[in-house]
Every structure is written in structure tokens, then in C-alpha cells.
Amino acid sequence: MKKWKLALMAATMAVSTLVAAGCGGKEAATTNEIRLGANFELTGGVAQYGQSAANGIKLAIKEANAAGGVLGKQIKLVVADNKSEPAEAGNATTKLITQDKVIAIFGPAASSNVLASTQIAQDNKIPLLTPTGTNTKITVDNGKVKDFAFRSCFIDPFQGQVMASFAQKTVKAKTAAIYIDSSSDYSKSLSQNFEEVFVKNGGTIVAKEAFLQKDQDFKAALTKIKAVNPDVIYIPAYYEEVGKIIKQARELGITAPLLGSDGWDSPKLAEIAGAAALNNTFFTNHYSSQDKDPMVQKFVESYKKEYGQEPDAFAVLGYDGALMMIDAIKRANSTDSVKIKDALAQTKDLKVLTGTLSLDANHDPIKSAVIIEMKDGKQTFKEKVNP
Q1: Could you tell me the fold of the domain covering 33-154+292-367?
Q2: Angle of helix 239-251 relative to helix 219-228, nearest 10 degrees?
Q3: Is 156-285 in the same CATH topology as 33-154+292-367?
Q4: The pLDDT of residue 335
Q5: Confidence of residue 30 (pLDDT cuts 50, 70, 90)
Q6: Leucine-binding protein domain: from which residue to which, for each copy (predicted)?
Q7: Is residue 156 predicted with pLDDT exceeding 60?
């Protein structure tokens, strides 16, 4: 009888231990730290983006911890590398939730990798905030808002619309060619929105070509585009391929303005394309380092001190995303994941680096965009476009 009672007590304790270990936010409430996850592209094809976004988040958390933490606790950031692959992004999300017991997740950076992660977060009731994923399906799919998915960047329809309007109003383009990465949800979504607005406003798409991520030779498609002589060429893609496309386009004698998206924002773009080739190119972005806002200038100085380099937009959006999460935890006054989710959804008039941010009913920020012009390999502010 004694042995049976001892066995029963041991079993009860084991079950209690398992339940406590799987309680995410409840477990966090009994410790002196708040465990947040970061699922980013630290290696692979878009590592520059993931590293920058993660760096921005780390800096915001370092500053918050130095100021006394949040709810009297220090924030612990658990980082996972998704290797720039959707399958790995899903695995990283699962690991952060089930093994690392985080109460919320930042990332990933690329839309395809975010899309591979949102359902896992949703199923586990863990809020996921991407700083840079712009695809509309990240927060809304088949007309239904994903309760646990959020972002700190503007979305593709707005970005595509901004560049189409810029092409027609500022560049005075009547015809355009579109050259996309057909392996990227991000690229396909942007091209679709650019085309819709450009055509609606009286423009004509005279050519559409496609490439795949990691392609090296783009001259065959560029030769076809050159033959129809478009006023502008829209290339909504990531810096690795874009840099090579721009270089090869100029080598073929294409002088038309080349237009792009926030995926161009990387110091490596000028290294790959060459400074001269980038003249007469423009892209949509989330901020400009030339912004004189004291908050922006303080961040730029702190980032340079911390990492020894100028922050790009991905670092800025990572920092903004961390400010959003910290603000939500404070307003929720809790480390419970569901309460943090509810607080995130109610974000309004929060001052961040990219302006004053509020979330709409779809968990998408209402904010401005800027047009960046490349001059001799350097980013220069061209104009600002409000929502």
C-alpha cells in the first residue's frame, strides 16, 4: 500500500512538472525574466536582413533592461537562425515555443519565412511580430484576421502603390517593365500591386520577366526588356539578385530608371552593383537616416556605437517592433501571451523611429513611406509619402 501511494505521489508530481513547463506566459510570471523569442535569417540568402532586424531588437531590449526592465523583470531574448528557409523558419518557431518557452516571438524578416511561421504561433496562442514582413497574408488570410500575427512595417499594397505613383507623377513614366523573383511571395505581391495601380492610372506594362532566387545570369531577360524600351523597370526583390541585375542591366546599356522596394536596403547593394550603376535608381523604404528627428539621430548614434555600422531600415524596424512589444507588455501589465496579444492589437499613437504608429483592425501599421534615391552608391532622401 505504501509503495502504491508513493508511486501515485511521484506520478502526480511529474504531471505537475510537465504542466508547469508547458505554460508559457504563466511560467514567465514566476521568474525574474521575460523570455522573448527572435526567429531570424542569420545565415543564408537574406542574412543581412535578419541580422539587422535582430540587432535593432537587441539594442531596444538592452536599453529597456538598463532602464530597469519591464514589469520589474529583465528581458531575455532567445535567438534562433532560420537559415533564410521557410521550412527552417517553421522549425525555429516550434523550438522557441516548445523548448525555449518564450511568451512572444519577433520575426522572421522575409515574408515567405513569416508565412511559414504564423500558423504555428496561432495554434500555440503565442503573439508573433514581424518587423519587416510586408505580404498581406501575414496578418489576414481569406478575409480572416490572424489573432496572433502583427507587424511593424507597412504592407505590400501600400508600397506597390507608392512606387507606381512615383513612377508616373515624378518620373513621368508611361510604360513600365516588371522583373520579379518568382520564388518569392514578397516579390510577386509587390509586382501585382504596382501593376494594378500603374495600369489603373493610365500606364502600360510592356514586359514581364521572372528569375529565381540565387540566379546569377540575368542578361537574357534584360535583353528582352531592353528591346521594348520601357520608361522604367520595376524590380521588387532582395539585394543579392537586385545588385547583379542592376550591374548587368547597365552593362547591356539600359539607362532607364530602375525602381525597387525595401528589399534593396542593404550596404551590400552598392558592393554588388557598383556605385555608378546605381545612379538613376529609386526604391521605397521605411525611413531615411537623414531624418533630423532627435529620436532617430539618437538611435543612429547608439547603433553605430553598438555595432560599428550605419543602421539600415531593417534595424530600424526591428527596434520599432521591440518598442511595440515592450509597450504592449507594459499595458497588459502581464507576461501572459494572450493578454500581450490583446494589448498589441490596441497599439495606438506609439512614438517609434519611423513616426507615430497605430495598428489598424488587420494588425497592420498606419504609417508613412519614403522614396530613396541612390547617388554614387549612397542613399539620399527623395520624398515622403503619407498613407
Answers
A1: Rossmann fold (3.40.50)
A2: 60
A3: yes
A4: 97
A5: low
A6: 33-377
A7: yes
At 5, the pLDDT band (50, 70, 90 cuts) reads very low
Judge whether 150 and 365 are in contact, CB under 8 Å.
no
The CA-to-CA distance between both ends of the chain, in Å, stands at 73
Residue 38 vs residues 13, 249, 322: alpha-carbon distances, Å: 32, 37, 10
C-alpha 133/C-alpha 52 separation (Å) is: 14
Reported as a pLDDT band with limits 50, 70 and 90, residue 289 is confident
Note the residue count of the chain: 387
pLDDT of residue 21 exceeding 80, the answer is no
Cβ atoms 57, 130 nearer than 8 A = no
Task: Enter the C-alpha cell of residue 94.
Answer: 516550434
Query: Which amino acid makes up residue 298?
Result: K
CATH architecture of the region 156-285: 3-Layer(aba) Sandwich (3.40)
Torsion sign, CA atoms 238, 281, 164, 52: positive
At 352, the amino acid letter reads V
Write down the domain spans for the chain: 33-154+292-367, 156-285
**Rounded-to-integer distance, Cα 107 and Cα 114, Å:** 7
Stretch 243-251: mean pLDDT: 98
What is the grid cell recorded at 152?
A: 511593424
Portion of the chain with pLDDT greater than 70, in percent: 92
Whether this prediction's pTM lies above 0.90 is answered by: no
Site of grid cell 524600351: 229
Kind plus residue range of the DSSP H or E element containing 350: strand 350-352
Alpha carbon dihedral 326, 136, 361, 53, in 10-degree steps, equals: 10
